[in-house]
Amino acid sequence: MPTAGTRKIPFGGDYNPEQWPRAVWDEDWSAFGKASIDTVTLGVFAWSYLQPAEDTYDFARLDEIVAEAVAHDATIVLATATGAMPPWLGHRYPEVNRTDFEGRHHTYGQRHNFCPSSPVFRRLSVELARRTAERYTGTPGLVAWHVGNEYGGACYCEHCAAAFRVWLRERYGTIERLNDAWNATFWSHLFSDWEQVVPPNALSEHWRGPNHTAFQGITLDYRRFMSDQLLACFRAEKDAIRAVDPDTPVTTNFMGLYQPIDYHRWAPHLDLASWDNYPPGPREQVRMALAHDLMRGLKDGAPFWLMEQTPTITASRDVNPVKRPGVMRLWTWQAVAHGADAALFFQMRQSRGACEKYHGAVLDHAGRTDTRAFREVAGLGAELATLGDAVLGARTPARVALLLDWDSWWAVEMTDGFNRHVSYVHTVLQYYRALWQANVGVDVVPVTADLSGYDVVVAPLLHLLEADVAARLEEVARRGGSVVSSFYAGRVDEDDNAYLMDPPGPLGALFGIRVDETDSAEPGVTNPVALRAPGSAADDGAADLVSAAGLVFEVVVPQGAEVVGTYGSDFYAGTPAVTRNAFGDGEGWYVATALDDAGVAWVVGQVLDRHGIAGPYADVPDLEVAVRERDGLRTAFLLHHGTEPVEVPAYTAGTDLLTGREVREGETLHLDPTDVVVLRERP
Questions:
Q1: Residues 253 and 207 in one domain
Q2: A Gene Ontology MF term for this entry (predicted)?
């Protein structure tokens, strides 16, 4: 279990005392005590001092660091130190350095710099993981192993080319099946030997960057392959740990909505999911909530760990504003509300040099404990101590599933012929935002998930449709549920080849339509879509809402579906833009255009109303409510992301676990911006 060995939500983060003189360590631990920090992640970037040469290992410094943590009764997350290679490795074995998309073989440098297909890297990284596990298994306070760090990137070297061909043989079996999958008769691409296959990059199938490829099937497979190769590196280190330590959970830190790696393919191999939360802007509460729910969904709803966040600024961008007062606390509680069973930072003390020396930290270069950042961290630490184990292991109830699919993400954004301005994540976020503002519980799950427990399944841009997905979505509707999808749905099979049938392909029966044409427009060009509730005819009066739709306008021909939204302009004015189709005891909704946020919210609201799914305060912008349950007890988190104070009636009675205040149902709650209430609902 992720919470094994902990009595409360672990609080602390990435600690690298090897970067500072020994005398600083005592200051650090004194400060940690003041902030109720009880957890440290150690050794993430320790490879160069743990193994100063190929035949030399030196654990003396890490021994001291671990001993200090044990002496302070800390919870320890111990890394395998393979998150960045030492210089000697890149220079002695140049093959371990990556070859980039442009075909340039790199020399040693930076961090994400190893070739995942390199036998040398695999041998040395696994050996270091094995030795680390042998030395520290059984260490008091050790609760998790941290393999690698923020896996990502890609390599296009000869080792990867050879490994890709092996991967393809295992996937397709015969060269004939490969040619069929890649539609290789196009442009005379029929392969007669596996050795003719090369990685798709700027020197082969691509132009104008990674998303412009002559053969989507080849590129799609290479992305799948590279995700699998990096996973193989993780699994090899995990196996080395498991040979020594059969019990302690093993994880690696993901990066949320990160396109290069299919986290669903990784999920079965993690003992717990964890991720690093660095949102791209100051008003990203919906995106963060989606990423939290994605991480929770990786392990069938089990809690995850927030492995990294910054107390103040992120130092990797052109402009790096500080988090405003209260925001760090608010965002941390949001993570807990969505299922986090740990709240950790990068970093505990600012580095003296290099590119992250100004990255936010619990302690600045001077080690001060009277800064605003430290005071806020200490205040949060005290609150987490007060909360104790009240929500550890608690789950999130949800009647709604949102499907997020890496294959569709990859395929949509490298497909020619439609609109290159369509963003998979932006579209998924639109539908998630409508659910988030409605304050209903959502599980973000893969297309392979068991959908039998959900009343509503939302699947935007379900472009690539594999095997039995259509049948399982039909079953959701047949038993009385609702399925919502959007333009581009059901266009291609698992090989990214078009279905030889009317769009939306195998989903046509569920949605009761066919798509005749697909029009596109530049950003900013809109077509008004008039939306009317099911059962109301178009000539019965004014529309419920007129949505400004853009980018994509599919021309839809109903095949039994009811029209609930119509285009207002162009040659297809008056034709369907949104439809609802009765299917079994349920329904399928199809949105044939990129509605604006209000339009998406209207569609989602219609579906939620049909099932009586409603959360509190849906009419209060930016007041988020999330619930966790354990042992029959519900804990609600009220999180105010707005910029102005609000007053709302308490929707239920309970106890605020942070203040001890008893709350009566209906009494007025005053919430200032960034306020948080953790309400243990009264049974």
A1: no
A2: beta-galactosidase activity
DSSP label of 655 = E
Largest CA distance in the chain: 82
Does 157 appear as a known binding residue?
Answer: yes
For residue 573 the two structure tokens come to 């004015």
Dihedral angle of Cα 514, 515, 516, 521, to the nearest 10 degrees: 170
Above 60 in pLDDT, residue 671? yes
Q: Was 111 annotated as part of a binding site?
A: yes
Q: How far is residue 586's CA from residue 477's CA, in Å, rounded to a whole number? A: 4
Supply 488's token pair: 């581009």
- Determine which one of 18, 68, 205, 308 is catalytic: 308
CATH number of domain containing 657: 2.60.40.1180
Q: What is the pTM of this model?
A: 0.97
Supply the pLDDT for residue 538.
Answer: 59
Same domain, yes or no: 210 and 278: no
pLDDT in tens, 448-470: 999 999 999 999 999 999 989 99
What distance in Å separates the CA atoms of residue 274 and residue 282, rounded to the nearest whole number?
22
* DSSP secondary structure letter of residue 99: B
* Same domain (yes/no): 504, 566: yes
Mean pLDDT of the chain: 96
233 is in an annotated binding site: no
pLDDT tens figures, 3-55: 545 689 999 999 999 999 999 999 999 999 999 999 999 999 999 999 999 99
Distance CA 26, CA 42 (A): 16
Pair 338, 451 in one domain = no
Q: Is 308 a catalytic residue?
A: yes
**Options 18, 150, 205, 474, the catalytic residue:** 150
In a domain, 128, yes or no: yes
Residues 106 and 195 in one domain: no
* Percent of the chain as helix, strand, coil, to the nearest 5: 30, 20, 45
355 assigned ligand-binding residue: no
Active site residue 64: no
Q: What are 26-35's pLDDT values in tens digits?
A: 999 999 999 9
Range of 197's domain?
Answer: 158-220
Pair (435, 538) in one structural domain: yes
